[in-house]
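Quick start: what a row looks like.
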Amino acid sequence: MLSWSYNTTVNINTASPEVLAASIAGLSIADANTLINSRRQAAIRDLGDLAARLSNRTLSFDGGRLGVASSFFIVRGNIAIRHTALQIDALVERKPN
């Protein structure tokens, strides 16, 4: 088993409703879905933009745990040869230069 601890932020532009609700105190799943619909129109630029989009709700969030960028990505590869198929998923970390 592979295990490690890594301190990273939750990307509010890609997080699921459940992750958003768990990361922003007081945010319901319904409110998280509303936020997701809003980010489909335009990505959330920064935490100030997030606060403005949630201004009609009483919420609190830790700016150190939320962000608008990602360092980790899942890369999916598929190959099929005749009657055999293979799918592989890899977690890739992008490190700053």
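That is the whole record. The chain has a mean pLDDT of 87. The first helix runs from residue 17 to 23.
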